[in-house]
Amino acid sequence: MEQRILIVDDNEVNVEILEQLLCDKYELDVARSGEECLEKLRSLNPDLVLIDVMMRGIDGNEACRRIHE
After folding, report:
1. Of 8, 31, 39, 50, whose CB count within 10 A is highest?
2. pLDDT, tens digit, 9 for 90 and up, residues 7-29
């Protein structure tokens, strides 16, 4: 079973770069905001979350705090 990574970034270029680097070895999911990240975590069980710190709305730091809760 491949390990799953959730990429969380509102910058499409960053998402594309990470997808190109990781797609051969990992199953990837993408969220474009902190809010979407929190929603997807309810149904996904990623092994790793790569999250951008600077996003509109719920930023990466706040999303991490909520994940820990």
Report:
1. 8
2. 999 999 999 999 999 999 999 99
